[in-house]
Write a structure and sequence with these properties.
CATH superfamily of one domain: lpxc deacetylase, domain 1
Structural class: alpha/beta
Strand content: 25-35%
Shape: globular
Bound molecules: zinc ion
Helix content: 10-25%
CATH topology of one domain: Ribosomal Protein S5, domain 2
Largest sheet: 6 strands, mixed
Number of strands: 16
CATH class of one domain: Alpha Beta
Number of helices: 6
């Protein structure tokens, strides 16, 4: 099955094909195969970028989040032609729908063995031993339509997070474009905030924090296997998420 779209940052077209295959989930591009692992992350500035020899693959997080939600760790090759995973509608719901044809497959969750905390300024990511899996994500943005937001899974189902879109602020657009970023961003693939309000309408009340939780799952996938434990993310970033995945990966 094939999906085409443009990259959020490069604005370039890319194609993704999903193939059933034995063994761990891996990407196939430019004639090379590589696993999505934290040890292969080469950049986390605005999205998560994997690097393998001369190859670079940007914005892997929403596809990986869908794999996490579906519990697919084995049995799939993701063939990519292009520099970036397509942003589609800015969420993971299309990936989740596509992955419905692939069964959940992989190892049993590994218990988190001790408390792991990664911090940077007022941001933190925590993993602790616990029965089952739980995730709490909070954000704090000085914007009248965001402020403090929290999501807890459970009771919120991980699959519900998939509909939450990438979000951004109108005032950042110029600066990010000047850095060569978000060339593919539009109101079709992001929830955009103006100075005091929304430019387009949110899909769910707390869409920004739901999206942050989705990004976290995508980055946590880079630990290479599912984990059982309590996860808490406050004002997370790809950098901190990936750092945690790296520590879990060991
Ligand atoms: Zn995202």
């Amino acid at each position: 099955m094939t999906i085409r779209g443009i990259g959020l940052h490069t604005g370039e077209p890319s194609t993704v094909r999903l193939h059933p295959a034995e063994g761990p989930v891996r990407f196939w591009m430019g004639g090379l195969e590589f696993r999505p692992l934290a040890s292969s992350v080469v950049d986390t500035t605005r999205c998560t970028v994997l690097g393998w020899h001369h190859l670079r693959l940007m914005t892997v997080e929403h596809l990986l989040a869908a794999l996490y939600i579906r519990g697919i760790w084995e049995g799939l090759i993701v063939e990519v032609a292009g520099p970036e995973i397509p942003i589609l509608d800015g969420s993971a719901q299309e990936w989740l729908a596509l992955l419905q044809d692939f069964p959940p497959q992989g190892p049993h969750p590994t218990p988190v063995s001790g408390t792991i905390r990664v911090e940077e300024g007022r941001s933190s990511v925590l993993a602790q031993p616990a029965e089952g899996f739980s995730l709490t994500v909070t954000i704090l943005f000085p914007h009248p339509k965001i402020g403090y937001q929290q999501v807890q899974c459970p009771p919120t189902a991980l699959a519900a997070l998939a509909s939450a879109r990438t979000f951004g602020f109108l005032h950042e657009v110029e600066a990010m474009r000047a850095q060569g970023l978000i060339k593919g961003a539009s109101l079709d693939n992001a929830l955009v905030f103006s100075e005091h309000s929304f430019v387009n309408t949110p899909r769910v009340l707390h869409e920004p924090v739901w999206h942050k939780a989705l990004d976290f799952l995508g980055d946590l996938y880079l630990a290479g296997r599912p984990y059982q434990g309590r996860f808490a993310v406050h004002r997370g970033s790809h950098r901190l998420h990936v750092e945690l995945a790296k520590l879990l990966q060991g």
